[in-house]
Amino acid sequence: MFTVLSRQPCQQTGFKVLSKTSTIITLVFLLLSIVVVIAVTLVQINQKEVLSPGLKYGIVLDAGSSRTTVYVYEWPAEKENDTGIVSQTFKCSVKGPGISSYGNNPQEIVKPIDDCMNKVKEKIPSHLHKNTPTYLGATAGMRLLRLQNETAANEVLGSIQNYFRSQPFEFRGAQIITGQQEGVYGWITANYLMGNFLEKTLWRTWVHPHGAETTGALDLGGASTQLSFVPEECMQTPIARYRCSCMAMTTVCILTASSVMEEMKQRKGS
Ligand SMILES: *[C@@H]1O[C@H](CO)[C@@H](O)[C@H](O)[C@H]1NC(C)=O
Ligand SMILES: *[C@@H]1O[C@H](CO)[C@@H](O)[C@H](O)[C@H]1NC(C)=O
User: Fold this and answer.
1) Which of 64-73, 174-183, 235-244 has the lowest mean pLDDT?
2) Which element (helix H / strand E) includes 88?
3) Atom in ligand 1 nearest the alpha carbon of residue 81
4) Domain boundaries, the chain
5) CATH number for the domain whose boundaries are 56-177
6) Which of 21, 25, 129, 218 lies at 20 to 30 Å from 2 by C-alpha?
7) Membrane-spanning residues where (predicted)?
8) How far is the CA of 242 from the centre of ligand 1 (A)?
């Protein structure tokens, strides 16, 4: 009885020591796993911050001969120098005619543009306004006005430039683009939208498709038409007479309506 009694506490202490050690080990394991979980979570959060700092925006004013349209584009910020996919998020039609109609009253273009820009401001988070590049590209209407009266054309562009200086956006200029540039942009847009430059793989990454064919583009504008395509042969073909401009790397060939008309006149004459 005594032995049992005197042994019992002894066994109990042994058991206690044992259970104490296992409790400590369990606690240490528990602590370690908590630390690991926290560490993994922290790393993931950090990585997320690095990988997705949000969206970036760009504004393009397409100043055509009959109307001006404001487009807002967005793309993932981390894709800046890579193959980010750009999408159009907002579009606003500026009231009234194209900017070339304001040759005699260049100040009056400001109000209708401002109405659209106020809507744009609501679509882009305000802290990003100063980093949002903004471009205005004017096409055939302004090319014609410049031919008729260069001062008037410059005053229209000057009025727009002045307006954008008072705006929070990063204005990159208002310019009259050439028919060739317009053709190239149209060609790039058409082929981009058709997925000829990039395609999504099974692993949800974007790659350049091998041997992808490009498509020709026909842009029927208010005052000009652009036909752009990749010719079989660049420069050496008679098509060069159409003032086809081939770009060294991409060999894109542009045919503008005016160059076709010129060629037809020449043929009639000969
Ligand atoms: C993108 O490229 C430009 C010019 O090469 C560079 O200044 C800029 O820091 C780059 N941006 C990123 C996010 O890598
Ligand atoms: C050209 O435009 C300016 C500014 O609108 C005007 O003052 C000038 O009279 C115009 N010139 C001609 C030849 O129409």
Assistant:
1) 235-244
2) strand 87-93
3) 1
4) 56-177, 188-269
5) 3.30.420.40
6) 21
7) 21-43
8) 38
182 is catalytic: yes
Give the residue, out of 144, 145, 148, 149, with the most ligand 2 atoms within 8 A of its beta carbon, to mutate for a pocket test: 149
Q: Which ligand lies nearest the alpha carbon of 146?
A: 2
Structure tokens at 3: 């032995």
Structure-token pair, residue 65: 């001969």
Q: Among 164, 158, 78, 84, which Cα is nearest to 121's? A: 164
- For a ligand 1 pocket test, name from 50, 75, 79, 80 the mutation site with the most ligand atoms within 8 angstroms of its C-beta: 80
pLDDT at residue 77 tops 50: yes
Is residue 151 within 6 Å of ligand 1 at its C-beta? no
- The DSSP output letter for 266 is H
Cα(143)–Cα(161) distance, rounded to whole angstroms?
Answer: 17
CA distance 246 to 243: 9
Report pLDDT for 131.
93
Q: Which residue has the higher pLDDT, 215 or 239?
A: 215
